[in-house]
Amino acid sequence: MTLAQMQARFFELKGKLAVGQLQEEEFKRELEKLRFQDSQGRWWMLGAQSGRWYYYDGARWLLGDPPEPPPPALGTGAPVVVIPLTPQPRSTAYTQPNASQNPAANSAQTISAPYSYAPAQHVPVKPIPQPPQQPRPPAPAAPLYSSSGSAANYVAAAGAAAAAQNDGVPLAQSQITAKPSLSETLHHELGKVRGAVFSAPRVEMPHVQRPTLNTSNIPVPPQLVPHAPVPLRKYQSPLILMGTVLVGLTLVALLLIGAYSFVTGKSLNSLLGSSTTAQRNPTRQPTVSAGAGNVENLLRVGDELASKSQFEPAIAQYQAAAKFAPNEADVYTHWARALSLTGRIGEAITTAQKATRLDSTSAAASTELTRALSWAGQTNQAIKEGERAISLDPNNASAKAFLAEAYLRAGRNSEAQDMVNQALELDDANPDTHRAAGWIAILSGRKDEGVGEWNRTIELASDIFLYQYELGLVYANYLNDPAMAIPAYQNAIQLYPPYIPSYTALGRAYLASNQPGPAILQFQKALTLDPKSSDAFLGLGQAFQMSNKCPQAIPYFQKALELKQDLAQASKGLEDCGAITKGSAPPLPAPTQVVLAPVATAIPQATVAPITGSNANPPKATSVASPAGTGGGASGEGHIFFPVYDGQYRVYSAKPNGSDRRIVVELASSPQVSPDGSRMLYYSWVKDQRGIHRIGTNGANDLHISLRSEDTLPAWSQDGAKYVYATRAGQGGDINRRAFTLRVASTGSKPRQDPAPLVEQAQYPTWGPDGRIVFRDCGFPDETCGLAVVNADGSGKKKLAPGLNATAPAWSPDGTRIVFMSNVSGNWDLYVINADGGSPQRLTDDLSDDGLPTFSPDGSKIAFVAKRNGVWSIWQMDPNGENETKLFDLEGDIAGPIPGNSPAQPGQVWTEQRISWR
Fold this sequence. Notes:
By secondary structure, the chain is of the alpha+beta class. About 35% of the residues lie in helices and about 15% in strands. Among the domains are: about 5-170, no CATH class; about 635-915, TolB, C-terminal domain (Neuraminidase, 6 Propeller). The strands form nine sheets. It has a four-stranded antiparallel β-sheet. It has a four-stranded antiparallel β-sheet with strand order 12-11-10-33, with no helix packed on it. Strands 13-14-15-16 form a four-stranded antiparallel β-sheet, with no helix packed on it.
């Protein structure tokens, strides 16, 4: 087997052990089969807890990066793994391979065990002669498997045995009983001074969620295993001899001094002179003169390590610096940053707070505290601290970037955009600023811009694992591209293996790409790092279920439910696999889009709903006070969706009383919400994606579903499967000379070609509850236009209100009436007409323009836009025109020109917009 196959086998065994499919003794036996010997004669094995490789140096097991097992001899088939049979007594000294060793005394068995995700089959074993090789490592003197779950930390000379034992690696007998020599003790103590890893108390974070793909939280283990072992240094014999001579000379000198003092009766000062007396009251030396250089060097080395995601050795450098300069705020500032980037947010907050206490004027310390508070979800405190950091240093780009992120989390999107723009102007080469800009753009629907910002972030800091992990989230959650997410997650794991969410996210991406095999391996790795991860158990169950292996999936679903009883996906998996009765599983909760929050702070979009940010033309503040005189009735029911223009378009939603106002999508107009209220069609102004899009009303799952930028004013069918729209596409020539036609397409995907016209010479369609479509009955702007209705197949056309220049029709929920706007009286007013025809009834009579009507969900009110007193607002009235009431201001225009577009491009005048009430 290759190394990858052996590790995969290990993770398979660990998974089976976790769910009780494998007993501990059997696990030990199977793990023993994964030992091998390299070409240099060193033995290698996997640690039972960490899954990391250890090699045997003749005295102890040390962490290392193994070579591939040696290939088989020609014609012998697949590579084999050499399994030692019996242990031999060993000394603590390293023994070189000896060609004269007796092969018979070193006999071994070999097996060929190709890896499979299915339960391993028994393979007969047969002995084969082996070449002379290094003596085998000793038999286990401690349990191979330990339930403690702790991983080995740095393996230095004196600590190698304990580290290996914690990982279930067998120890040499000499490692347990031998007393260390003087040179070993000195080496161990010097090693602690040179590069000790200091342990700090771990601060648990209440109510803090780590980032996942809509799954449960995974903690970061407090102890981490390095990529390679610390080399074991040995003192040479000449050095030991020289030290012995020096010690002997010193002892002789002390004996002579003692004899002199005893014979003469004089104190030692008379022999040593006044220098000894002077040292009794030494002058106090400045503490910084000796340590300042050390502190500066330690911080520099720590920063270099952190820039490569080697956070544990970096933190060790900062901890050592804190011993030299315990009252230096800058030390704790660097330390806090590394803690934040590894997900230890509670510790980061504590450390950053200490830095701000030591130096209340340090903008850098305040900036790191802003980062930690924001990532912990403590938004209000983060905003306060970020504003303080900027007051201390107005040119601190990182402070402005983290403050922008805090604003974004608080729903203050315009302030977030303004702040990140300032940060970019201050420092365009700062990855923190581009990261914040990337999230604001992505969550605002400006996906091309967001990807560009993320590419710039990775370009500036390609070795920070967090940025790779977040890039994976961008592709998986917001661009619906799990294939692109996979390499990003793989990069994150390679840069920083201990971070468990990287494995679960990678597993989810493989599942989304219909690759259950690789997904199984990633979830098994996550389970090895956290044996109580309900998310890893759930993922394994789903992966086996996807592989049509329900018998293997069921115990993982059961274990996930044991750890988290309300995990509905696990219950659903058991139900689908037939393990429980259909219908007994609890209903799945409504899916919530996970909004990025770095490392330890994933915030559900339902909590900060949604964090959509803003763009270079941020909207005004979205808090809207309900004006005096707001009507009752249906004004508190549902949400109204409407466009706002302030140089760019945005679609907002708000309750009829003006509360709960939020951006649904950026660079968008002409919204219409599906009959069930879960999705929305709109026209997108995003460059290279102009046309009709479909998106969730929570701002998630945006999809471009039309072929042409000329396709506009979409409207849902009652079953939500289709939509009708108006277009000038497919006619060639000047757009100003084209007539509108109505076409019908699927809401599920983009068509391969333009659908056939449904109705010629028609604009502004709306699908009614009875299946009929009402539309503006003419293909060009013409004051003789009226309304007409047709059946869903285009037949049975019937004209309504001819010659009124009617437009923007909307159906009542019961399908009996149609409300529309007309300027037949000189300005735009609202009218209503029976769906079967008759005389229209005028509803509004104001000198200002009223239009774009829509019925409330229960039909008791009509909402519309009006520009009264020069301000665009949303109003409502009864269906008979009574009780007109202003609901709230738009805080912008309803429409306007887009630079670079032909004036004939639909959607740039307010009469070509619409609002929707669901």
